[in-house]
Amino acid sequence: MKTGRKSLASHRRIVIKIGSALLVDRATGLKTAWLDAMCADIAALKASGVDVLVVSSGAIALGRSVLKVPAGALKLEESQAAAAVGQIALARAWSESLSHSSIVAGQILLTLGDTEERRRYLNGRATINQLLKLGAVPIINENDTVATTEIRYGDNDRLAARVATMTGADLLVLLSDIDGLYTAPPHLDPEARFLETIAAITPEIEAMAGGAASELSRGGMRTKIDAGKIATSAGCAMIIASGKPDHPLQAIETGARSSWFAPSGTPVTARKTWIAGQLQPAGEVHVDAGAQTALRSGKSLLPAGVRLVAGQFGRGDTVAVIGVEGREIARGLAGYDADEARQITGRKSAEIEAILGYAGRAAMIHRDDLVMTETAPRVDVRSAEKKDKADA
Fold it and tell me: Are 331 and 319 in contact (CB under 8 A)?
């Protein structure tokens, strides 16, 4: 077993994300033999006591195959119509294939709001946990029939990461048509180096992400790295592996090439996991160097340390905190709405009552409602590679 990894069967709860191109062939439709092999792998994991959740792409791809929609970009209403047909076909396929191992499948369709709004997030988590308690395998997808272009996940990598953090999974496996992370897109750069172990997602690691590799998928390495940041910050390890061979999980177990992302050694609490995983902050709060240092030491964000407030948000909305280098360093729940926040920007907490006309909170964002999201210190990727090879 490679350094830092455990056998898949030794994990408590695994979320498996499956890309569209693995499940659906543009010419022939559903890849039934591949799906049956995948479900056999899932059955083996369940037999060893692992809870398994599946985030399955493929509804739109399968729906357009059933409807015989020509290749090419789809309008929003065409995508939604394809999803409406494809979701039924996809759920039936998963149910039938899992039933060969006497496993019950349960379908859950999520929208962005189901994980961004706290009450709906908790309700979704309770439903999924009950399905697992009853021995079922939840089959989860974005509800493409109602999602809009502006308000959607748009890819199942980040959705899978949110499901992993929502359910307290300790491993996220992203299966697609690439076998892991390279220093550059391997189809464009023949000298790209494969990275087997990623100890932390640094700015250098983020810069290695390329674009989408398949017309059937909306994601790419960029969204996988985003997923990794969400998952690992919550203490969940992540694997990126190729799903092309039959029995892809079995292939990972027997040493097939894959990239493993180490979980954070100090995962955030359940409430802060939700805050950190928000995909669409309602606004931004830019801070000075003093405030940035204070936040890193566990302090609240006071108005005096704020330089600029951007966007329109309400009290309690999630906002991104932008540091002096122009990168996000934290996320938190705003203590004031945007207009009030602008009025007290740069001012001392003692001045708040005189400015706003009421005694508000001393902090713009209280430390209990704030989580640091900045990446770990920079590392030399080549040195890390050498260490990985020496440890392997």
Answer: yes
